[in-house]
Design goal:
By secondary structure, the chain is of the alpha+beta class. The protein has 4 domains: 67 residues; 86 residues, PAS domain (Beta-Lactamase, 2-Layer Sandwich); 57 residues, Helix Hairpins (Orthogonal Bundle); 144 residues, Histidine kinase-like ATPase, C-terminal domain (Heat Shock Protein 90). The chain contains 9 helices and 12 strands. A 5-stranded antiparallel sheet has the order 2-1-5-4-3. A hairpin with a 5-residue loop joins strand 3 and strand 4. The longest helix has 65 residues.
Length: 401
């Protein structure tokens, strides 16, 4: 009879202990078998998950590779040059466009830490002359931008090169054509403006040669001739002021006094008897050329009076706004549309049959000479007409040109 079939009374103490240990061993063995089964199941699950992860990783790597190839294709096909520098400012990547533009190969550019043999433009529109090692002359633009990570750390720099040679040639031709067109317009304007008074001078000079002209007629003809000569002289003076602005004779001016002086001069020369003036002059000190600024204000006031036919009214105002003195001349005339506003400061452009088209050009020239500005507001004046605004800095940023 074996140990397991013996009853408890038949077993010795040692046999009973052995039987107890054997039971415990069987229990532990069952637990181990169960743990092994769980581990085996878990291992299979992990194997499946790992296989899925590997498959997903392979897909991501393939997608990343395709994305890199796509970006490389884009970089290679860009018509503008791209130069990539690392944090140490060494060139680590260039595209074919950059190599073609610079006339240099990858072997000459890669790992080069020195700056390219041309300046980086402060503005995207700045053009830079460049001569390649093989002697090809080009006009380029070069702009640089830092590459930063999410924490703001600088990873490197990307420089963008563009060949603007063809555009520069076209621009130069257009500029030349524009100058020729402007010269033709000015020549036509000068001829037109001078021909009118000269025709009058010739006509009255012919009348003076008639034998039957008496003393009173001769004096009247002489006055007409003198008036025509003065008109021609005014045209020439205006042209000279536009072509060669004088240096500024700077002094400290009072805005209210200056505006008042300009108004008095116009009232003494223009037909102002029927014009109603509203003035609001604030007194502020600012630097400027008294003669020139007074001329600009006089031109604006006179122009506002001349465009009105009946029920003439004007509102004149000067005040300080920030670091500027602002002069406003408002009239009750027909106003100015946006298209006309763009051309009113062009020499010889005028909307009046008897106008010379130099007054507002001189105003604009004087404003620019003082580092100021002149424009006609797009919003009509409260009188219903034009609103001319002339601005001068209270402190000039630099001396006269």
């Amino acid at each position: 009879m074996d140990l397991l079939t013996q009853t408890g009374s038949e077993l010795t103490p040692d046999q009973q202990d052995l039987l107890t240990y054997l039971g415990r061993f069987q229990s532990v063995l069952a637990e181990l078998q169960e743990s092994h089964a769980r581990l085996e199941s878990k291992a299979k699950r992990m194997e499946i998950e790992l296989e899925a992860s590997n498959l997903s990783l392979e897909v991501q790597v393939a997608e990343s590779e395709r994305a890199n190839q796509f970006l490389e294709a884009i970089l290679s096909s860009l018509p503008t040059g791209v130069i990539v520098r690392n944090a140490e400012q060494c060139i680590v990547r260039t595209n074919s466009a950059a190599q073609n533009i610079l006339g240099m190969g990858d072997d000459e550019l890669l790992n080069e830490c020195a700056r390219l043999p041309l300046a980086i433009a402060e503005d995207a529109s700045d053009w830079i002359p460049y001569s390649s090692p093989c002697g090809v002359e080009r006009t380029l633009t070069l702009n640089a931008s830092e590459v930063r990570d999410s924490k703001g750390n600088t990873l490197g720099t990307v420089e963008i090169l563009a060949d603007q040679s063809a555009l520069a040639i076209v621009n130069q031709r257009m500029h030349q054509q524009s100058k020729m067109a402007a010269l033709g317009t000015m020549a036509g304007g000068i001829a037109h403006e001078i021909r009118n008074p000269m025709n009058a001078v010739r006509g009255f000079a012919g009348l003076m040669n008639r034998a039957r002209a008496n003393g009173a007629d001769l004096r009247r003809y002489a006055e007409k001739i003198e008036l025509g000569v003065r008109e021609v002289d005014a045209i020439i003076s205006g042209l000279l002021s536009l072509a060669n602005p004088e240096q500024l004779n700077l002094e400290t001016l009072d805005s209210a006094d200056l505006f008042g002086d300009a108004l008095k001069i116009v009232q003494g020369q223009e037909a102002c008897a029927e014009c109603c003036f509203t003035v609001d002059f604030e007194s502020h000190a600012f630097p400027g050329d008294r003669i020139q600024i007074r001329q600009a204000l006089r031109n604006l006031i006179a122009n506002g009076i001349q465009v009105q036919t009946s029920d003439a009214a004007m509102a004149l105002r000067c005040f300080a706004e920030g670091d500027e003195i602002v002069f406003e001349v408002q009239d009750a005339g027909p106003g100015v549309d946006a298209k006309t506003t763009e051309r009113l400061t062009d020499p010889f452009y005028t909307t009046r049959a008897n106008g010379m088209g130099l007054g507002l050009s001189l105003v604009d020239s004087i404003a620019r000479l003082h580092e100021g500005s002149f424009h006609l507001s797009q919003t009509p004046s409260y009188l219903g007409g034009a609103n001319a605004i002339l601005r001068f800095p209270i402190s000039l940023p630099r001396q006269a040109r």
